[in-house]
Amino acid sequence: MHWYHDPLAVATTVATIVIGLATVVSLWISSRMWKVTRKYTEITKDIFEASSRPYVGVTKLSMTPKEAGFDPLPVFEFDVTYKNVGSVPALEVRRSVTVMVDGKALPPITPEESPAVLMPESEMSALIYYNDPQHFKAIESANELTLIFSCTYRGVTEKEYRYEQKAAYDPAHNKFYVVKAKAT
What we know:
By secondary structure, the protein is of the alpha+beta class. The protein is 29% helix and 42% strand. It has two helices and nine strands, in the order αββββββαβββ. The strands form two sheets. Strands 3, 4, 5, 7, 8 and 9 form a six-stranded antiparallel beta sheet that branches. Strands 1-2-6 form a three-stranded antiparallel beta sheet. It starts with 6 loop residues before the first helix and ends with a strand. The mean pLDDT is 88.
């Protein structure tokens, strides 16, 4: 007698095939669910990182010619104010300001500062003074005056962020306007 004549053998065989197919379908569905879960986890991580990080940017740029109090030489004062609008402190904030006169960078006047901490909703200022007669004259007679602010910092994770802004001076309105800004 063949197996297919035995009702118990047929039932067992059909059940085995159904279980095998169900296992394959279940494996396929599980693998799809795993991929979707991994994608949702990455999206959730990205949302958390975007909402729990510092965001540092420039809030004010100004240039003022001044008479120095005790120094007989006139002074150009550049004031760059920057703020952390993020939800966590910006740690190890390192900033630099470059003054460009007709496409050429003036030498930095202020020494490099040690890294700072910038709390959420807090501001810091970088004041740069040029009182050397040669620099003063170059700034005063510049056809094109550009200020470049760059800043690196990290959040509560070890990820490092960078902000850079280039602004050009408009002498008719005595103010800087942003030419380019980039945040990463």
